[in-house]
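Hey L., structure's done. Input below.
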Amino acid sequence: MAFARVTHTCGHTSRVQGVNRTDADRYAARKSQELCWDCKKAEEAKAVAAANAVDGLPALTGSDKQIAWAEALRRRQIADLTATIADIQTDEMPQVPPELRPELVDACTIMLATIRAETSAHAIIERRTLRLTEARDVLQYMARQGWLPTLSIVFPSIAE
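Output:
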């Protein structure tokens, strides 16, 4: 086991580990061409925050770590839900009856507006396991919230 010190492009130093001296030195040389882990994460968080600001999303409240994590989660949820809406509108979801598609698109649009308006990083993090890539997942979530009584009548298994 061998260790080597690395000075990253950002100026920070770290220690890397290799199987032997040659391996550690090779790994250190490669890592010296990159930002350190903390700077890389900070740069990614700034990029996501800038993209969210360009999209007109409100600033989040919470700790710095919560905000950084929630910005990325919110971005993913919006992308997933937007793709779901597009799939419903282009008949990519055969499990949704055609007569319910307009209602489901309206419901998804309301849900998208709710996610876009959220200002609490904590609320976004708590909702992080919510998958919005399948119509069934959206329907289940909305039925549990009591937003879609007509859909839970049509699909009784949604209310489970």
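Strands lie at 2-7, 13-18. The chain has two domains: 2-35, 38-159.

-- N.
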